[in-house]
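Researcher: Structure prediction, please.
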Amino acid sequence: MANLKVMMLTKEFPNNIYGGAGVHVDYLSQNLTEIMDVEVRAFSGEEDLVQDQREATAYEAWPEVSKNTDQRFVKAVNALSVDLAMAKDKSDADIVHCHTWYTFMGGFWAKKLYDIPLVTTIHSMEPLRPWKEEQLGNAYHLSSWMERTALEDADKIIAVSKEMKKDILKYYDVQEGDIEVIYNGIDLNQYQYTDSTTYREEYGIDPNKPYILFVGRITRQKGIIHLVNAIKDINEEAQVVLCAGAPDTEEIEQEMAEKISAIQQERDGVIWINEMVSKEAVIEFYSNATVFCCPSVYEPFGIINLEAMACKTPVVASAVGGIKEVVVDGETGFLVEFDQVEGPTGEPQDPAAFSQALADKINQVLADEKLQNKFGQNGRQRVEEIFSWEAIAKQTKSLYQQLVQ
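Model: Predicted structure follows.
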């Protein structure tokens, strides 16, 4: 066989990345390009796709699809049109590998058209994100169908954590042997400590005061509202920096705005950066935070915790999903346990108690400089030993080779 080639389908690709799945595709495709042929087909966005050593093509949704359509349905029906466009274009790839439900039908159709194996990476699962009905309306049932159809027809499924593998087996009709656990990774050369003050000064963060950091989208899944509710119990000498944008809905953004406004009237040093900042900025924020907090109620992996640990920052995170495979309680940070509501929502049964527990652990780290240093050093060491993208690319190529022999 000539050099192995993969056609990778993704919603996000530089310069249109807003979540962990996009970060994953960016670094995985870069590292795969060093050892095999890679063609990327991505959704178009506000900015053009990066053109480097990777072959990348942008696909737009068909305008007719969203005409006279309930606005909540647009994301799902647009995805179908983009997927068909991706699949119909000729390809000489040996494998099709798709990421997130947005591209799963493209992978499903490409498998049928070109008679090539289908690999799907599950970054999060629709059955465990029922709050998306708030965002998509009944189109949530369509996105769920798209995910189920492709996943159950896939030749191999990549789960980004052992916990996610359990969830896949619970919710879908697939064989355990068809699921491979391959962790997310991180660029260790890029994500490392910096003492720069450039972006802190730009965004009004006092470089002489400690701060707690949140990085992520404004969504129920990320649990940011629980951290916001914890602020009243966090040491007032510390700043709170919420680097949070890309809201799922106008309603949740409004809820966030009202809560932040009320808190800012009660205490100083609460800074909400309502945008997706540059990679350079977020690395500076991670590096100089006293504590990074990840209060997710559902998290298949939680790449943001890796990013913080790589920058030698202690982590306080909820003990859910793949986070428990990244953060080592008492060694690289603290994990906060909470009782979840029965069913797939993942919300805490006692939200006030969860917020208080987050505040307690954050305060414990804030008060102990030796603990901060221990968690920071251990976190960087753990990331270096286990989560390099080079190793993950090699594991992924090995999986491809199993399917084309």
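Model: The radius of gyration is 21 Å.
Researcher: Thanks, that helps.
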